[in-house]
Amino acid sequence: MVETDYYELLGVERTADDRTIKLAYRKMAMECHPDRHGGCTEQEAKFKALNEAYDCLKDPQKRAAYDRFGKAAFQNGAGGGDPFGGGANFDGGFSDIFSSIFGEFMDQRGARQNAARGADLRYDLELSLEEAFTGKQASIEIETLQACEPCGGDGSRGESKPQRCGTCGGAGKVRAQQGFFVVERGCPTCYGHGVTIADPCPQCDGEGRTLKRRQLSINVPSGVDEGTRIRVSGEGEAGVRGAGPGDLYLFVHLKRHPLFSREGTTLVAECPISFTTAALGGSITVPGIDGAEIEIKIPAGIQSGDTLRQRGAGMSVLNGRGRGDLISRILVETPTKLTAKQKELLCQFRETETGEECPASKGFFSRIKSAMG
């Protein structure tokens, strides 16, 4: 499962205040509004994603849920845990999410109820733009809690086995009457685990897991962008005493490219050309993101800042087929080092100018002359 982080999408830090988030949303929404791009489907999709992100982050309760559980917080019936902490089940719907967030009771040792499932892990993966285009089988190394080998993950030594807690009956929690209310707390005997261990494993002290380093091979799909989140199920921390593991979340970060900047699936390259090429026309060749050379035809009379589009020469479409476009932004360069011969030729050209060669300049100076009366 691949999804974009709301904070990355809006370009703000996770600690940003409400005003910062609001200003970032307004600026980006204005830039990519579909009406400004002639109904471009790519900009329309980005605009919808921005609205989805802002709708979540502007609401304190939704933001709290998202910070903890990611988009899983808003998927009814979705199992699993949050991307930065412990596990939780959402089978009961949205109301259960907030119950999970704010309804957890801590016993005297700080053990959380039902904290058996392993924690989710985050890994920041840096890719070049070429790797994001083609996809990659990434090899990463992480240090995480894994099932203890000597005890097989159950936390007990040798032939002894964990026994069901006699205080809570294996539930991991006990109830106490306080006036009209019934308060549920973590079991003080088993500390919320539901079992007790008479003879703990000396390797893991009865927890059933130890800290180790390991190598993972992760398939990164083509077309990922800055902030893309990749979920690798079951590759987080091992659970306590044989409980299920958490998940691993990879957050993609792209290195700066020397030629291209990226706008979704569109690549933008700034291409300087000589003023003679701009005046007479011609062609230039640039290397494509796929390694193939791309010839760009320059029409005569092109102006600095004009753009040329090559269809299908941009980035791969994430989870889809096809490619975006390549936009070449033309920058007309004025020569700074001229030979005597070149200066002579330019002087001859200037003597033949009528003003019709550069209509924008002619119109500008005409307006100035009229304004000064």
TrEMBL record:
Function: Participates actively in the response to hyperosmotic and heat shock by preventing the aggregation of stress-denatured proteins and by disaggregating proteins, also in an autonomous, DnaK-independent fashion. Unfolded proteins bind initially to DnaJ; upon interaction with the DnaJ-bound protein, DnaK hydrolyzes its bound ATP, resulting in the formation of a stable complex. GrpE releases ADP from DnaK; ATP binding to DnaK triggers the release of the substrate protein, thus completing the reaction cycle.
SMART domains hit by this protein: DnaJ
Alphabetical list of InterPro entries matching this protein: DnaJ, DnaJ_C, DnaJ_domain, DnaJ_domain_CS, HSP40/DnaJ_pept-bd, HSP_DnaJ_Cys-rich_dom, HSP_DnaJ_Cys-rich_dom_sf, J_dom_sf
Positions bound to Zn(2+) 2: 165, 168, 187, 190
Pfam families hit by this protein: DnaJ, DnaJ_C, DnaJ_CXXCXGXG
Originating gene: dnaJ
Location of the CR-type domain: 135-213
Family: Belongs to the DnaJ family.
Gene3D superfamilies from the UniProt entry: DnaJ domain, Heat shock protein DnaJ, cysteine-rich domain, Urease metallochaperone UreE, N-terminal domain
Coarse class of the protein's main subcellular location: cytoplasm
CDD domains referenced in this protein's UniProt entry, alphabetically: DnaJ (cd06257), DnaJ_C (cd10747), DnaJ_zf (cd10719)
Chaperone is among the record's keywords: yes
Subcellular locations according to the entry: Cytoplasm
Domain writeup: The J domain is necessary and sufficient to stimulate DnaK ATPase activity. Zinc center 1 plays an important role in the autonomous, DnaK-independent chaperone activity of DnaJ. Zinc center 2 is essential for interaction with DnaK and for DnaJ activity.
Annotated GO MF terms: oxidoreductase activity
Bound cofactor: record note: Binds 2 Zn(2+) ions per monomer.
Keyword terms, alphabetized: Chaperone, Cytoplasm, DNA replication, Metal-binding, Oxidoreductase, Repeat, Stress response, Zinc, Zinc-finger
Tagged with keyword Cytoplasm: yes
Binding site for Zn(2+) 1: 148, 151, 201, 204
Domain of life: Bacteria
This protein's name: Chaperone protein DnaJ
Subunit composition and interactions: Homodimer.
J domain boundaries: 5-70
Zinc finger (CR-type): 135-213
Chain positions of CXXCXGXG motif repeats: 148-155, 165-172, 187-194, 201-208
